[in-house]
């Protein structure tokens, strides 16, 4: 084939891709969640390792994708029974919009209001998202999409670093510049700040990565839980840490801890107390809501406990979230919200690039260019799937999805509680019903038999009927089920999980006798 394809060939290929997309949503999800290891090894040998001089042509490559690549991919997004990593699916509305994203290939970072509507769509999508979460879009003026919660945590710590140093300098009566202009080390030396600390409880690993990227260092992240490994804040310990002289503080609240899904706060009063402490000591509050923020949309008495765990989040200074989890839009999609647009512009302003200035000179846009409030200068139009799916399902549609997911998680947790061979984690003396009320979308458990427990994740995933994540709890192996796919069928999925868990125990016992 030649180096170039005709326009007709390209159109035919696009039509074929759209047909495959439609077929994928019409078809039932396969019984197996993972391809077999043998198939993966076989298809891996089919990968081309040498760049062809003349090119293979679109038809041959399309066949290669269909025959050798797609069959060896897992069904993480399409399967209701992929319970690893809090991987949401992709709603049909989001998938359709994502195809338009590729087709039209907009760079949404540069605001060009007379040339494209892309930036306006992004602002509208973020406004709709705020409304879904019960947040006032006018208050959360610094809002942008990111690649995921990790990038959003980078934005949060960067803004917090800028603001806390300025506040501490003001308290000390020292004229202050900007970290963005002077650099972190120079400004700390000038102001007399000795350290910056990130105070939190059971943080996600991405927080340490973000702290490393923005120059705070992983060791700046300090646990102020009731006890080590507790999701709950020790308020006295938090206040003592905030009182440290010449130390700027950032408080990070886990709105859904990665292993258990439990929340760092469980009521508006707790959040208000943290807000009051941070106001007294000039600390920035950042909420990592990647795992649990969407609980704010749940209504009904049975969801009261998790809903109240998100109460007061609007008191924070910045919030991180993940769209490719419970919002069920394609990878990659995170979002960042902050109430302080001035700090965001100070940190992320893309100065001195004349060719990136808006085409409408002299006209102040209603919203800042995404170029000046985020990391990238170039970025995919990931707002369109969010806009599309939010309009398609609305608040009640997303609430219905989430209720199915939470209900399934609680049924599985109840099964584990009553099962003679499994144990629900964390261990608790609370009544079963009280423990279930705390469950959101994550079920953490272990096998009571120590040998089986070391093999549990591998044995479950080897069935190929469902997929779980391996983790650890109290220095021992543990298994985590995370339910986040819009396709959830509470009755059918519960039957499958019960069958798999019973099958794993039965085969293990047979192998030992």
Keywords:
globular; Aspartate Aminotransferase, domain 2; PyrdxlP-dep_de-COase; seven-stranded mixed beta sheet; carboxy-lyase activity
In percent, how much strand structure appears in the residues?
A: 5-15%
Average pLDDT level: 91
* Terminal-residue CA separation: 61 Å
Q: Structural class, judged by helices and strands?
A: alpha/beta
Short summary:
By secondary structure, this protein is of the alpha/beta class. It has helices at 7-26, 37-44, 58-69, 92-104, 118-132, 149-172, 179-182, 184-191, 205-213, 235-242, 268-281, 304-309, 341-348, 383-418, 432-438, 450-462, 490-512; strands spanning 82-83, 142-146, 195-200, 221-223, 247-254, 284-288, 318-322, 334-338, 422-425, 442-447, 467-473, 476-482.
């Amino acid at each position: 084939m030649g180096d170039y394809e005709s326009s007709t060939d390209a159109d035919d290929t696009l039509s074929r891709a759209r047909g495959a997309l439609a077929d994928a949503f019409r078809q039932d999800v396969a019984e197996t969640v993972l391809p077999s290891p043998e198939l993966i090894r076989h298809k891996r040998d089919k990968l081309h390792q040498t760049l062809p001089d003349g090119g293979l042509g679109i038809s041959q490559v399309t066949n290669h994708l269909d025959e050798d690549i797609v069959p060896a991919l897992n069904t993480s997004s399409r399967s209701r029974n992929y319970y690893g990593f809090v991987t949401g699916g992709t709603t049909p509305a989001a998938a359709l919009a994502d195809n338009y994203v590729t087709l039209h290939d907009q760079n949404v970072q540069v605001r060009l209001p007379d040339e494209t509507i892309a930036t306006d769509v992004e602002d509208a999508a973020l406004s709709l998202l705020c409304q879904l979460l019960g947040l006032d879009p006018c208050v959360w003026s610094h809002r942008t999409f990111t690649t995921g919660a990790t990038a959003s945590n980078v934005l949060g710590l960067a803004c917090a670093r800028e603001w806390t140093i300025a506040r501490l300098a003001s308290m000390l009566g020292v004229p202050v510049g900007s970290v963005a202009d002077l650099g972190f080390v120079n400004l700390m030396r000038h102001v007399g700040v000795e350290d910056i600390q990130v105070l939190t409880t059971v943080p996600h690993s991405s927080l340490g990565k973000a702290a490393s990227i923005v120059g705070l260092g992983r060791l700046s992240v300090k646990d102020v839980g009731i006890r080590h490994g507790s999701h709950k804040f020790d308020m006295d310990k938090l206040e003592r840490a905030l009182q440290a002289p010449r130390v700027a503080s950032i408080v990070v609240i886990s709105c859904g801890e990665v292993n258990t899904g439990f929340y760092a706060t469980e009521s508006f009063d707790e959040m208000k107390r943290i807000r009051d402490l941070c106001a007294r000591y000039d600390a920035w509050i950042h909420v990592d809501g990647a795992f649990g923020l969407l609980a704010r949309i749940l209504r009904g008495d049975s969801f009261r406990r998790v809903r109240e765990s998100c109460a007061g989040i609007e008191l924070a200074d910045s919030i991180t979230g993940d769209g490719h989890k419970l919002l069920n839009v394609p990878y990659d999609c995170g979002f960042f919200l902050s109430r302080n647009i001035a700090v965001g512009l100070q940190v992320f302003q893309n100065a001195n690039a004349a060719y990136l200035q808006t085409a409408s000179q002299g006209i102040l846009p209603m919203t800042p260019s995404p170029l000046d409030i985020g990391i990238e200068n170039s970025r995919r139009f990931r707002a369109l799937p969010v806009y599309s799916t939010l309009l398609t399902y609305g608040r009640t549609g997303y609430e219905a999805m989430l209720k199915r997911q939470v209900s399934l998680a609680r049924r599985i947790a109840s099964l584990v509680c009553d099962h003679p061979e499994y144990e629900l984690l964390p261990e608790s003396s609370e009544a079963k019903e009280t423990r279930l009320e705390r469950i959101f979308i994550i079920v953490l458990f272990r096998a009571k038999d120590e040998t089986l427990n070391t093999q549990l994740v591998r044995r479950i995933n080897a069935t190929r009927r469902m997929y779980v994540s391996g983790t650890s709890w109290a220095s021992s192996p543990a298994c985590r089920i995370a339910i986040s796919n819009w396709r959830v069928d509470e009755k059918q999925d519960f039957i499958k999980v019960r069958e798999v868990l019973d099958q794993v125990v039965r085969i293990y016992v047979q192998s030992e006798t």
